[in-house]
């Protein structure tokens, strides 16, 4: 959480090609994510946004190209080093992915239990703190099946920040939430970014979130199977004249700037 | 962790200054607020708490946790606490942690139940389970009635897939178990009967045991582990995905669409598998009889025909049909009543197999008692 005001990008993606077996998902992806960015991965359904996220967090190996985190290439390191690099990532998944047989407190405490030498009592205390940060104080002993979808997303966020990650990845954080909860979650993400000095990567197609919290982005296209553009979404809205990007950012309405 | 990342300094009689310094990392462990408590207790005149973080290095949640606990303690002792001297990130995270107060009544207190309480709630649970199972059984009967009337909606392909899966696909395991079962029976019998020079009766023993009990029961137990578990897992995951709800909203009875083809398929296949298991068991017995006891194939078969009447096969066959119903129903019941999580589906699968096997054995004992009393 200390200041890391390095001038070079936090994450650099270079010539990335992603495939499932022989099926090409995306190719030639090149973009930078700076320290303290809120970086949006956007694009139409099925274009490979979540796949890109899973490549960046080290779940899938790229078919070609590199992903640099703090200038070391994620997939050119040894397994042990990569595991260590992955530990500074916090990730939330689309459906929350909380372990259903554990209570919220045990879910949040699990990374602490695995990677620190804290006493069980201390782990419970920290898990409680993390849950209260996301507004779930008092729900420590609930099971994931006993709370609502919005609470589940926040609980997943609590687990993601358990180890004070330097980079937070969100896969569709506000999907399925009502506008007010989605807004509150956005505020929470902003707050965490500012206070924890973290870098944030979000897969989303909620336009409201994209414009209000995103300050950098990449736009993936399912047809040409590559990125169309990268940059601040608000700037893209006014300055990018690619029809597909305009259509996306204006919900399909024909842009009058064209 | 070194003790001196926190020190306490008394600015005046009423002001306690908490000096935070060095690196804070959760891998060093958490700071205990005991010393803070000791300081304010030993100086009852304390009314203000301040922080000094000028020597603070790197920090993480361990510091947030410490500040939050000092905050809580100060509030408890009616002290004024000022955390604004801490770095901005810490102040904001502490504010975030304290922003949403604990919801009234949200906390679950884990009360350890008294023995009587526990026993009572277990009994109530058993009663509820029992009535749920009977309801389920009734629903299935209604579903069968609809099938007879021709109004039950389900996909015929489903039925064939289940028939295929329950019948031909289980032949391998049924063969293996039945042959071994027949051989075991023959071995056990041979050791005893040889002493009396009555080894020919091995054929009667194997024939009677397989026909009346073992073929049907072993097949049922195999199917409970194989098909009953699969049914529970399939229906349980469909519950998790809200597929069962989707069927209901489409106006399709989940009993007709899901339970009926599964039950029908198993009930059709169980007697066939049992006949097959009988043949395999008798072959297994013959193998032992011919190799170990020097009996000829024709002697073995003739002896069996003469001493094991057809009614034993029919009793076995009858039982196998009921076993099929029991296994299918316990699998489907557990699946349909599964909770909506990964562990609940696992639990449902386990329960389906346990319930299936218990029902098989209980029913088998009942039949044995009844037939003995009736002298059949």
Architecture overview:
With 258 residues, chain A is α/β, with parallel strands linked by helices. Chain A has two domains: 1-88 and 165-258, P-loop containing nucleotide triphosphate hydrolases (Rossmann fold), CATH 3.40.50; 98-164, no CATH class. Helix content of chain A is 36%, strand content 23%. Chain A has helices spanning 49-56, 79-86, 104-115, 120-133, 149-160, 179-196, 207-213, 233-239, 243-249, and strands at residues 11-20, 23-33, 38-43, 64-69, 72-73, 89-92, 167-171, 199-203, 216-221, 226-230. In chain A, helix 6 (179-196) links the parallel strand 7 (167-171) and strand 8 (199-203). In chain A, helix 3 crosses helix 4 and helix 3 (104-115) runs parallel beside helix 5 (149-160). Chain B folds into two domains: 3-99, Transcription Regulator spoIIAA (2-Layer Sandwich), CATH 3.30.750; 153-374, no CATH class. In chain B, strands 1-2-3-4 form a four-stranded mixed beta sheet, with helices on one face. In chain B, helix 6 packs antiparallel against helix 7, helix 7 (202-240) runs parallel beside helix 11 (310-336) and helix 7 runs antiparallel to helix 12 (342-374). Chain B is elongated, with a radius of gyration of 35 Å. The chains are: A alpha/beta (258), B alpha/beta (376). The A-B interface holds A 1-2, 100-101, 112, 116-119, 122, 125-126, 129-130, 132-133, 135-145, 163-164, 188, 191-192, 194-197 and B 26-27, 29-30, 57-62, 64-65, 68-69, 88-90, 92-93, 96-103, 106-108, 110, 339-344.
